[in-house]
Amino acid sequence: MKKILSIILILVILSLSLSVLSSCGSAEPEEGEITRMTVDINPSVEFIIDDQNRISSVTALNDDGSILIVGEAFVGKTPEEAIEMMVSLASETGYLVKGNVEAGENTVKISVSGDTDYAEQLKENAIKAAEDSLKELDIEGQVKQVEALGVEALRELALSTSLYTEEEINAMDEKQLYSVISQSRVETALLLTEDMRKAYYSAKEYEISFTKREETAKVIKSMGISYSIVHSAYKSALDVYSQAITDIEQFRYDMLISPDSQYQKSLNALRESKTELLKQKTFTASLNINGQEYASAVATLKLTEENYNNLLKAYETLGAQINASLEALIVNLKQAESYLIQLENTLFDDNIEAKLLEKAEDIEATLNSAKDKFYEDFEKAHANDITSIETQLLEKKNQLKSEIKA
């Protein structure tokens, strides 16, 4: 009898032990929980993780990140699988190198948002996945956990990627902010570069703002001859506002998006220089530090790095100059918008306000339709540019793989 009880006790202890062990790596996300994870190897990439512990969107946070993620199927993977893919791709393209590297090289930085049981477990799992991947690839490196974005930084990100007002964003809790960011990332999944996403967010914001005021002008016009002067004044101001929007979007395209722009040419030169830098890093790391070639390779690497940094500085300076000019156009837009608001405050009497309230549902339906249709229209308008960007990134990625392997 004692023997049977001992066996039962052992089985119970073993069962409890297995339960504890299994729970150590499998905390489940709460219903509706959205988690933001970033992996920075420079390439830097953001992953949004849904409440099924699956990647729902992947977004490059810099140009190297765009090169790394293009053509890859991250969506639907687990966070650990996504990290394994990132490390493997970074190795194939030369961002992580085998052999002799200086301190601080081959560093993988990971951040995970939130303080739930799931988020805390994911932090551990993510670090382990990266460490295991480095070990499997025989890469000497380190993995660091870095701090995730704070609430205020999340508010700025949500504000820049959505149509919510600052007041609405400020009223949101962290969970709602992640939901807003997640929706915007899924919406712009095919826009692989930050410049294209900025163009999209900006154009959408202006389009919806214009549509709302255009619907307002239609309501005033419908009120008859007695409001013709109000309609004429408001419509004239709206035309100025529309032109200001057109000027901004045309300038943004000509200076930042067009393949013929100096900005894109500067970016292409920077990418070519980065390819040479990664090749030289890989080659130098492969050499024996006591060999005759090593000193020469290190000197060449230093020159290659200096050339890259000079091109990077030129690229950033050009971008800053273009953005400064863009800000001047935005000032014109704000002035036009301010005048519209002034007219709304001074010319809109109780009858207009009542009519707008009566038509509020129709106006809201029109706005929702415009929001839903906007991506389709944007994609059609920029189809060639979107395809061109993807092609360029794939070519650069394949070039890196080929030359690093060689």
Structure description:
The chain is of the alpha+beta class and 406 residues long. It has 2 domains: 35-148; 194-405, no CATH class. It is 70% helix and 7% strand. The protein contains 14 helices and 5 strands. The protein has a 5-stranded mixed beta sheet, sandwiched between helices. A hairpin with a 3-residue loop joins strand 1 and strand 2. Helix 3 (79-92) runs parallel beside helix 4 and helix 10 (262-285) packs antiparallel against helix 11 (292-347). The longest helix is centred in the C-terminal third of the chain and has 56 residues, at 292-347. The radius of gyration is 27 Å and the shape is elongated.
Strand content: 5-15%
Mean pLDDT: 92
Work out the number of β strands. 5
Biggest β-sheet: strands ordered side by side in the sheet? 3-2-1-4-5
How many domains?
Answer: 2
Shape: elongated
Gap between N and C termini, in Å?
70 Å
Helix content: 55-70%
Low-confidence stretches: 1-24
Report the radius of gyration as a whole number of Å. 27 Å
Element string (H = helix, E = strand): HEEEHHEHEHHHHHHHHHH
Q: How many DSSP helices? A: 14
Sheet with the most strands, sense and barrel status? 5 strands, mixed
Task: Supply the helix-strand structural class.
Answer: alpha+beta
